[in-house]
Amino acid sequence: MQFRSVSTHVIACLFFLASTSANAAERWVIEFKDSSAQTQLPVSAESADVREARLLEKLAVLSTTHKKKLSLVRPFGERAAVVNTTPGADPEQFRLRLLSDPMVRSVAVDRRVKLHAQSPLVGLLNALDLTRQNRSWFHQDVSVQAASINTGAMWANFHGSAPTVVAVLDTGVLPSHPMLQGHLLPGYDFVADPLIGADGQSTGGNSRDADPTDPGDGVTPTDLAADSACSGVSRSSWHGTFVSGLLAGNPIPAEGVFSVNWNASVLPVRVLGKCGGFSTDLADGIRWAAGLSVPGVPSNPFPAKVINLSLGAEGVCVAPIEGAAIAAARQAGSLVIVAAGNDGGTVDSPANCPGAFGVAAIDQEGLKANYSNFGSSIQLVAPGGDAAFPIWSASNTGLNAPLTNTYNTKIGTSFSAPMVAAAASLYWSLNPAASVSDVENALRFTARPFISMNNRPVCNVSAPGVECNCTTSLCGAGMLDVANLVNSVASGGLTNLFSNTGNVIPPGQSRSFSAIGSTNSMGQEVSAMSFDLINVIKSSSAVANPVLSVAGLQADITAPTGVLGFDLRAQTSNGRAAVASVVVQNQGATSPTLLASLLSPLINGAAAGVGGPALQFGDSVVGGSDSDGSSGNLGGTGGTVGTGGGGSLSLFGLLFLMILLKYNVRSTAPIRDIAQW
Which segments of the protein form a coiled coil according to its record (predicted)? Predict the structure, then answer.
């Protein structure tokens, strides 16, 4: 009886879905030309009411001229509007008719970028691995795993310098997850449609706000009936948390889960909700993440150097929407890294947009994964996992709303992209003056050559959906190699800065920070370093400053009660510097900059000993890899490892967080999450 009742309900929902989809409104982005009589003021100089009135007037004229009601959803960009209209017999004919109007500059469909995910039984071998070693297969030595990104050897002596801001445009994040503690900057929720946002924070029909928390994107039969873009019932993906944890999460050695750059800061930007999201929300999120203005939204105080998009929609790039946003972000100094898609064929948008850095997926053998899209717009490949060897990262047990934080598996190009994004952030931390082109060229130049297996076909556009040997014409420059990338900056010298015991100091206590592994412009390891404390924040001017004691490459700092935090700066004689943000509080949490030398043997299965990191490693800062896959050697194993949150969120980020939380600004085909899980 219960099964019959459920079946009846589902059938009713399907009939309702079919009837509503036939009557669903078409959604467009119409960009207007500037009239000669119009004062060309920047958007920031117009009030919201004036701008809306101007657009309503133009839409009224278009509606009368073309005999079709155009309803304003919201303003978009400088001179455009997102509009709804009732569906017609031929949408393309209507678009061309609008485009011929002398008032109109461009007309584009506001596509839905939809969730693109499956739930195969992945990771059975990993799940049965009680040592958890295989969970981090893509970090292992290249002699063990052909598709490795070559991070394991690097961590023995280096794990980044000044934190780089990386924006993750996705489903939002779960701020309570242990992997994300100490990494999250104050982000924003750009999902405007309350039906898609589903977070109960809508005001006046606009769901945008300053809270990028992921409420869950699970789809119920009720959701299917309400939104014709939903493709089926599904559980929540927690995709944004997964991507963020993989990119810049705290290491969780007990779970065998490690990020690529655990010294990066994540700027969470929510652009996806139930059944995806609109491309105009994505475009606004890209602009905001890059530090550009978006009408009705507070300015972003933490512009991202790297923007990760693990999402997409089938088809070519829509130039006036995501194409223009990517171009603007690039002009502002942000590298936009985009997953290629999981259809096994041509590259999705916006990975095929000019200026985007498209990333395809390889499996554990180093071959193009059968699900990965590929083509001439791909710049690089990185591991995306397969059924036997998936990707592990942060997740949650909740089917719809969040419940218990956990760790789980997924596969897809969604996870190749953040590996490249994290690598780019490592490079920028060592060379902050690098341009977008500099970083792109470094990623391509340091990539390892593709693997070629005799019993596999060569990738060919006429044979989609197969595991195949990559070529530079269809898979980019090669396979991501983080060690090679970091070594490429060594010629200019670098400065390490990490603490064995964390970047959170209880009041009145001390911490030691090590700069072991810093090199000069000749690639020689330095024996001394200058340290100073900057940006000290205190509860009152009467509170004493932190006490700094320096001996060679070690800085010991005592934080008196009343000191809230500070930045520790280490600098070599040639000017290279690193900055660690330290928080003073009673929290027992440890920094994401943990003693890295323990982690490499953990990942590679060696016995962990006790001692300090290796001090000498020739001219390279990490273990180099040759084109034949052989790896250089790094000595040294580490001591104890803490767990929990950290301090890579800057002190000023904490202050801005308190400020931005006071804002509650609430103001389109689906965006697909490029993942299989």
Answer: none
